[in-house]
Amino acid sequence: MTCSQHLIDALSRFNAARVLCIGDVMMDRFVYGSVERISPEAPIPVFLVDREKHMLGGAGNVVANIAAIGAGQTTLLAVVGDDLNGREVAAQLTQIGVAAALATANDRFTTVKSRFVSGGQQMLRVDREKAQAIGKDVEAEMLKAAEAAIPDCGVVILSDYNKGVLTNSLIAGIIAIAHKYGKPVVVDPKGSDFSRYRGAAVITPNRKELETATGMKTATDDEVRAAAMKIIIECDIAAVLATRSKDGMSLIAADTPPVHIAANVREVFDVSGAGDTVIAAFATAIAAGLPLLTAAELANIAAGIVVGKIGTATVQPEEIIHVIRSSQMTSPAGDITAKIMSRAVLADAAEKQRALGRKVGFTNGCFDLLHPGHVSTLRQAKAACDYLVVAINSDASVKRLKGPTRPVQDEKARGLILSAMEMVDAVIVYDEDTPIETLKAVRPDILVKGGQYKLEEVVGYDLITSWGGKVVRAEMEDGFSTTNTISKMAG
């Protein structure tokens, strides 16, 4: 077993986890566009909208991450307004398989955060919220729902965004119920008074939140430990998982030595919702019966993945496994294999490229024995885009299309050879006979195929054009084909 194999084994236990999250749900609205001129009405930029994306935010993003990472059961207790956004929150929760008990408060509206993004940068954020404390009637409804849900869960998350749902009395009531049934409570805290979370098993403040709550410095490992111990002693909290941005995380408990985990970040595009991902992965691991340190290690990897994405995002188990395995590779081939992605990972990578204003290209085929014709097509494809995805048929798919003697090279070999080519940015293996499902996931701007095909004959032509993309025909290199190469080898 490798030194990190225990983390991969731990992920396999997540399907037994039953997680209950209680807190402030909201809608995150991302509006993507471009700025190319200044308004004649005032010295302000004109934002030309290209597309919008609506995602669950706050506690909604926490449960979205829990569901995505593979928990067996995810439940959310929250409050929405009697409005269209509240109904959209409910619909999205149903879509991702989260069981939700949403109390409706007539004196408030559902929180919405709208971010306007151009060239990968947020230009403006507009918040619509009413953050006063919920009424006693709604609080009583929440406590009743918590009493019914807590016995069947493995962990309780309190996702506090200071929007008025988690009142002091509601927090105390939930923690008391959790203690009655022997369930740990994990808190993502807000504010300067952490004593309101008295009795929780773990809290997960970031560096700034820890400084605010304690009035102490947190620049070094020792300072973080001292601040965390103040919280543990004064607030009767068993442990603190402090997230420290580029310095990773620190797990502090009263009866064990502190553990400082180095950050696992390759690139940072957007830190929106990173704390949600941390508590989601951490609490799911606890619900699966894993030790606190293992839970923290997995949360650290998940956080490193999510900050490399655009907008409020989730993390898939295969992404965590990919990072774990990549970190074990010390040979130059480690960099090459990073280009070989699953469908979920590739969909996120393509979304990131588009958010940065780059064009995503796509071509596909068997690519069995690479020859000059293939190289020519790949060069033309790369010239038409900024980020080139090459989709290849799996071995089973090639056999169905070409016969029992093909492929000559298996999918692993074909993927590695393509990954070694400078013009190729990503490789995916698909098992279907056509790349339609992969096209739907990647949503490329440009689909490149050989010139022997008429545009309307290209698989995916209707799909690409439906979202404004285009199909480009590559010029063919005469005399080159895999079939001819095999014939020559046979003599």
What would you note in describing this structure?
The protein has 491 residues and is an alpha/beta fold. The chain has two domains: 5-327, 3-Layer(aba) Sandwich (UDP-N-acetylmuramoyl-L-alanine:D-glutamate ligase), CATH 3.40.1190.20; 336-490, Rossmann fold. The protein is 38% helix and 25% strand. The strands form three sheets. Strands 5-4-1-8-9-10-11-12-13 form a nine-stranded mixed β-sheet, with helices on both faces. β6 and β7 (121-128) form a beta hairpin. α6 crosses α7, α8 packs antiparallel against α9 and α9 (292-306) packs across α10 (317-327). The longest helix has 15 residues, at 221-235. The two termini are 46 Å apart. Mean pLDDT is 90; it is low at 329-334.
